[in-house]
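A.,

Following up on our hallway conversation. Structure tokens first:
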């Protein structure tokens, strides 16, 4: 999982000249006005948008779908085999009956 944020950058010198002079007046031993400007930072972080986009991976074919499809195909296959077997037995019975009746042999 990764999270990306859009950002933009803006820059301004901090502290301002007046604020830097005030810092120099309050802190003893600092005489160079560039020292506060080079060593202090004021940071504001803003989000461009508070919208959240969630990306989830979802399996397209679940185990239950697979079992259902296999069972359905297996049922179709077995059903076709049973029907074919019944047709073959019917054909064999008719053929045998025709052979028996043609020869004049009657069981019984």
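Then the amino acids I'd put at each of the 108 positions:
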């Amino acid at each position: 999982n990764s999270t990306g944020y859009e950002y933009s950058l803006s820059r301004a010198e901090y502290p301002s000249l007046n604020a830097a002079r005030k810092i120099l007046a309050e802190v003893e031993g600092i005489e160079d006005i560039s020292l506060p400007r080079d060593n202090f930072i004021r940071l504001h972080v803003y989000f461009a948008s508070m919208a959240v986009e969630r990306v989830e991976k979802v399996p397209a074919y679940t185990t239950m779908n697979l079992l259902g499809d296999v069972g359905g195909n297996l049922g179709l296959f077995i059903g076709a085999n049973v029907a074919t077997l019944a047709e073959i037995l019917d054909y064999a019975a008719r053929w045998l009956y025709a052979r028996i009746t043609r020869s004049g042999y009657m069981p019984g």
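The first helix runs from residue 17 to 26. Curious whether your intuition agrees with the design.

B.
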